[in-house]
Amino acid sequence: MANVYDKKWSPFQIFLMLFFGFICALVLLPIINIIATSMSGKDAIAMGKVRFWPVDFSTDAYHMVFTDSSMIRAFFFSFFLMLVKMALSMIFTILAAYPLSKRDLPGRNFFMLLITITMYFSAGMIPDYLLNKSLALINRFWVLVIPGLVTAFNLIILRSFFMSINQSLFDAACMDGCSELGTLVKIVLPLSKAAILTLSLFYAVNRWNGVSDIILYIQNPKFYTLQYKLKLMLDTIYIPYEEGIEQTVTPENFKAACIVFTMLPMLILYPFVQKYFRKGVMIGGVKE
Amino acid sequence: MMKRKLTIPRMKKYLPLYVMLAFPMAYFLIFKYGPLYGISAAFKDYNIFKGLFMSEWVGLKHFQQLFGTPGFFQALRNTLILNLGELLFTFPIPIFLAVLLNELNNEPFSKSVERIMYLPHFLSTVIIAGIIYQVFAPSGVINNMLMKVFGGKVVPFLTSPGVWRVTYWISSVWSGAGYGMIVYLAAISGINKELYDAAYIDGAGRFCRIWHVTLPQIRPTIVTMLIMNMGKIISIGFEKPYFMGNVMVEDASSVISLYTYRMGLQAGRYDFATAVGLFQSIVGLIMVLLVNSIAKKLGEEGLF
């Protein structure tokens, strides 16, 4: 809050509030339109009556989504994949950040250089693909976990955080010669809970939302994530049709319900997640 | 720098740390540096039966072929157009919004604005494309409202290559403006409040305070963001054009990463596609270094 010079209800302040109210509406209304469409009747949708409130309320589209076992399956698979990826990514990031936070570790700058370079240069899509192919990872579960295991950016953030902890604090605590691993687990990690939670969320959200590796590496429907499943649903023009039952769901209706279903976990967790992401932006902004 | 000898007791002290470090470093060497070997495919005739190592060297053949292929130039042009447009719209808007929001004297209100605007950043590209397709469809809510107000024909937001570009930019602003705004707000929150007080006492008005305090103070952040954006001018992640595009707008949506994907993984021309990707990486790197050194010459801090 830089501006403490205006009165709270001065014309300019009111203008600003109206302006930002309008901007927020622009951000939210497309989402609201999708939610309204997902809960409207087929005739109202076909006639273009649905704006920002359901018309002829109907839950038939959701009924279709929830009876599609492949969608539910993809949801649980995505969740499982996210947890595995998040845990492994964090373990590897911590294992790198802790030694590299030691100012007297010989070769530290060399390792940091190797890691930092990967932020600015990558070999490209095809060399990555050829490597994963030669490691026999194509169409395997682990191809969704290992190639993106550690992000240099996250590592640098965590390392800066470790370095900001007062070193003498745990030197003193470990006077009677406890191991490095002991120091890390017993002293450093408990002091870094907020940073670890923030980075875990970075990894989790990236895995939850990422789809390009599935397009590149996965053909087996067993490993389709929810986001990719949504893409397949959005690509279909026809919707499952049962003999003898009158069609009550239009493609727009069904697609909107699929989008809402896919969006829902993030919308629910958003208030919690955004807080930590904003902290991450702050840390990222002040990195060394 | 003082060189200390690596004696046995010293090594013993650091051994556990090196053991820890070995795991993530192995990851970086295999998965970040390992693919560098695959770059050699760009200079070989890749033979799937012989493998990359045994394939024959052909020098710059694929690069010569590259510059004679219309598809490549189309992809290059599309990448540049989409990115330049994005730079033009998505770069200044967050700065503008952050500076204005900072003028708001109502904490709860501006906190809610931040929260709402940050939301689309957390939606996946698939969801964003899905929402855009529903909302901008011929029978979608935007066309409906436009027809009601202005009458006339349906606007082909998703099917005419020229208009599709605008739709693409709109979706970028929609999904990215909040995040950008938060980055600048973080920078603004680091400004020393006394600067504002001093300006106020000297009789500086609102505009004057923005121009002489806020903007100069967040200039390093603006420059950093600009360098990063310029480095990406030749590369677009492949997800967004892939999900936002369709058959009818192919002429506008085929960007380099998508072209690499089609040539390499779909047509199986690994060697040619690697050359395309390598061209993109190298130009991207040159752009970052170039803009960085220009920024430094102009007296800015730069990235490195």
Overview of the molecule:
The complex is a heterodimer of chains A (288) and B (304). By secondary structure, chain A is mostly helical. Chain A folds into 2 domains: 1-58, no CATH class; 59-288, Orthogonal Bundle (MetI-like fold), CATH 1.10.3720. Chain A has helices spanning 11-38, 42-46, 60-67, 69-100, 108-120, 125-134, 152-164, 167-173, 180-191, 193-209, 212-217, 226-235, 251-285. Chain A is globular. Chain B has 304 residues and is mostly helical. Chain B has one domain (57-297): MetI-like (MetI-like fold, Orthogonal Bundle). In chain B, 71% of the residues lie in helices and 1% in strands. Chain B contains 17 helices and 2 strands. Chain B has helices at residues 8-33, 35-38, 51-54, 61-66, 70-90, 92-102, 107-118, 125-135, 141-150, 161-189, 193-201, 206-217, 219-231, 239-244, 250-253, 256-266, 270-297; strands at 44-45, 56-57. In chain B, strands 1-2 form a two-stranded antiparallel sheet. In chain B, helix 7 packs across helix 10. The mean pLDDT of chain B is 88. At the A-B interface, helix 1, helix 4, helix 5, helix 6 and helix 9 of A face helix 1, helix 2, helix 6, helix 7 and helix 8 of B.
* The CATH topology of chain B: MetI-like fold
CATH class of chain B: Mainly Alpha
Along the chain, the helix and strand elements of chain B come as HHEHEHHHHHHHHHHHHHH
CATH architecture of chain B: Orthogonal Bundle
The level-1 CATH class of the largest domain in chain A: Mainly Alpha
Number of strands of chain A: 0
Provide the low-confidence segments of chain A as ranges. Answer: none
Q: What is the radius of gyration of chain B?
A: 25 Å
Fourth-tier CATH superfamily name of chain B: MetI-like
